[in-house]
């Protein structure tokens, strides 16, 4: 019975796995790279552009972030992928919701990790009904937010 299962697995592998899967210039290699689909990967549109890309047009916000407690956060962590930006400005999300900030700033009881020392709040009790940007400027949360 075991030999039948092993034989079925080997036959399935021969049929389903491309011949060049795992084969590289140095012989057999683990990973997802296949020489046969290199062109397909070259044609894939990159969704994320990095903070350096954003800096080209938004130097003031970039500089402000780099001097703030949010200095290690990439722009696209909050704004989403800049794939079609600036060609389609509406494709870039301006999310001012509490939920966005709560992803990182909900207090977690991990005293032994760096996540435990990050300033956190309880979103169920901390100024319920207000977006965080009402009081905090997102690029530099030490600054005052959008007063309405």
TrEMBL record:
The keyword Iron-sulfur does not apply. The keyword Nuclease does not apply. Keywords: Electron transport, Heme, Iron, Metal-binding, Transport. Its cofactor is heme c. Gene3D superfamilies: 1.10.287.3080. It is found in: Cell envelope. It comes from the Bacteria. Residues 71-143 form the Tetrahaem cytochrome domain. This is Cytochrome C.
């Amino acid at each position: 019975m075991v030999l039948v299962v092993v034989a079925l697995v080997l036959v399935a592998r021969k049929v389903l796995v491309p011949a060049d899967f795992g084969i590289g210039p140095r012989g057999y290699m683990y990973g997802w790279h296949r020489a046969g689909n290199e062109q397909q990967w070259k044609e894939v549109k990159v969704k994320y552009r990095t903070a350096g890309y954003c800096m080209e047009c938004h130097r003031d916000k970039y500089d402000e972030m780099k001097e703030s407690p949010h200095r290690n956060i990439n722009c696209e962590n909050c704004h989403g992928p800049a794939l079609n930006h600036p060609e389609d400005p509406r494709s870039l999300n301006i999310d001012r919701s509490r939920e966005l900030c709560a992803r990182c700033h909900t207090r977690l009881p991990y005293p032994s990790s760096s996540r435990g020392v990050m300033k956190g709040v309880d979103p169920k009790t901390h100024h319920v009904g207000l977006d965080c940007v009402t009081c905090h400027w997102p690029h530099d949360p030490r600054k005052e937010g959008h007063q309405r």
